[in-house]
Amino acid sequence: MLSMSTEIPYFGEHTQISLVCDSCGWRHTDFIPAEGRKPGAWSLVLDSKDKMSCRVVRSSSCTIRLVELDLEVTPGSASSGFISNIEGVIKRFEDAIGTLLRHSQAEEDVESTDSAIVLINRLAKVKLGEQTIEMVLFDPKGRSQIIHDEAIHRDMTDEEIGALQMGVDIPIHEIID
């Protein structure tokens, strides 16, 4: 286990915890704020190429949704936190769709292949600022954020929290002598 406390600009002090198993290669990374947070959602309309460079802090409990494209990444058993920019988050979506595209091509599934190509092309237009979509982060633990002046934060409803997957909660315990 490695931990490092650092000040993330505009987001405050955080502890990054990384767990690694030398035997099997399993890894888990998460970001825990120094001060308590409550469940929250962050949204930003991606309507220009300039917004591709704004920062995103995503914890392992965060769901990311690209609303107009009906795309969503939910936390699972291997979910890890990361710090990236909007373009990096979109690249993660592109990579996942690319995997599905290769599989559908191998299976000669024309409909799925066409759908994947359309999504990849639309994401490319978003990165160029030629198509507008909204990105929303839903974090029931309140650890995620979009760092941009136009990003909107709001509290989450109990219904929203109940409908979300939480990912794996790795217990970290301090040993006291």
CATH topology call: Jelly Rolls
Q: Strand-and-helix sequence, N→C?
A: EEEEEEEEHHEEEH
Count of helical regions: 3
Low-confidence stretches: 171-177
- In the CATH scheme, the class would be Mainly Beta
The beta-strand count equals: 11
CATH architecture: Sandwich
Task: Give the overall silhouette.
Answer: globular
Distance between the termini: 19 Å
Give, in spatial order, the strands making up the sheet with the most strands: 7-6-9-4-11
| Share of helix, binned | 25-40%
Which structural category do the helix and sheet elements fall into?
Answer: alpha+beta
Written description of the protein model:
A hairpin with a 3-residue loop joins strand 1 (2-8) and strand 2 (12-20). It is built from three helices and eleven strands; from the N terminus they run E-E-E-E-E-E-E-E-H-H-E-E-E-H. The longest helix has 21 residues, at 86-106. With 177 residues, the chain is an alpha+beta fold. A five-stranded antiparallel β-sheet has the order 7-6-9-4-11, with no helix packed on it. Helix 1 packs antiparallel against helix 2. Mean pLDDT is 87; it is low at 171-177. The protein has a single domain, classed as Jelly Rolls. The protein is globular, with a radius of gyration of 18 Å. The two termini are 19 Å apart.
List the helices and strands and how they pair.
Layout lengths: L1 E7 L3 E9 L6 E7 L6 E7 L8 E4 L4 E4 L4 E3 L8 E4 H21 L3 H18 L5 E7 L5 E3 L4 E4 L2 H6 L14
Antiparallel strand pairs: 1-2, 2-3, 4-9, 4-11, 5-8, 5-10, 6-7, 6-9
